[in-house]
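From the methods appendix. Each design record in this collection lists the tokenized structure first, followed by the designed amino acid sequence. Records were kept in a plain field format so they could be parsed without special tools. The example shown here is representative of the layout used throughout.

RECORD:
FOLD TOKENS (235 positions):
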């Protein structure tokens, strides 16, 4: 069973976090917007307070779909964005918001917008060697404020992901290609990128523009929703 928590009033807004983290990552965002939206946060399978879910990206998404409110705005960060694209291809959503996310994370000969596979392997190996230490170092390099860093570090220590979930998440990031599904979506889509992001190259903005989507670009790393200029602009 997956853990979810709902707070606030207004339109339904669902938040999906990324690999290795948990829904506490969004604490600041929730506090800021709970007066405008009914916000549901979900811990991904094997992350935070959620049980493991065997299988593939489709199995993970099937469990998330079971606990979604009707016709929500779905926001996904990083791995959560990849899951959100998959979910958007299966159920009715009002709007899709992707933060530092991309339909295919790893670069290939025919896809020049992802991260190099060798660099991805090195990055993931470093993190999995000591997850808590690796995630804390990663967060510290994203230019967040000291108060934000302290809160994130506490969440990382309190709610670690399982080894099974970490391996599954890496496999999803490494092998998923949702470009076709993304192009077929018929709902409003908002993209937010960080110009200093080392995992989602800013060059992906060009590809999104080719899909008739103009990304919002902040002077941030891989955590643009913690940047002081970040705003939810939902129409």
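DESIGN:
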């Amino acid at each position: 069973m997956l853990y979810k928590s709902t707070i606030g009033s207004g339109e339904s807004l669902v938040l999906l976090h990324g690999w290795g983290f948990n829904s506490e990552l969004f604490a600041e965002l929730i506090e800021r917007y709970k007066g405008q939206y009914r916000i549901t946060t979900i811990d991904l399978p094997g992350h935070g307070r959620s049980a493991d879910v065997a299988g593939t990206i489709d199995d993970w998404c099937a469990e998330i779909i079971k606990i979604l409110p009707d016709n929500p705005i779905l926001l996904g960060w990083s791995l959560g964005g990849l899951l959100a694209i998959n979910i958007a291809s299966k159920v009715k959503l009002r709007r899709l918001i992707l933060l530092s996310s991309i339909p295919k994370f790893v670069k290939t000969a025919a896809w020049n917008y992802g991260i190099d596979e060798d660099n991805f392997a090195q990055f993931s190996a470093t993190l999995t060697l000591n997850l808590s230490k690796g995630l804390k170092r990663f967060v510290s390099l994203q230019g967040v404020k000291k108060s934000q860093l302290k809160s994130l570090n506490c969440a990382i220590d309190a709610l670690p992901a399982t080894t099974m979930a970490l391996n599954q998440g890496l496999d999803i990031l490494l092998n998923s290609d949702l470009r076709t599904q993304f192009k077929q979506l018929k709902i409003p889509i908002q993209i937010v990128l960080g110009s200093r992001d080392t995992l989602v190259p800013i060059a992906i903005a060009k590809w999104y523009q080719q899909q008739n989507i103009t990304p919002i670009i902040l002077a941030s790393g891989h955590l643009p929703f913690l940047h002081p200029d970040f705003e939810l602009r939902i129409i």
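APPENDIX NOTE: The CA atoms of residues 17 and 31 lie 16 Å apart.
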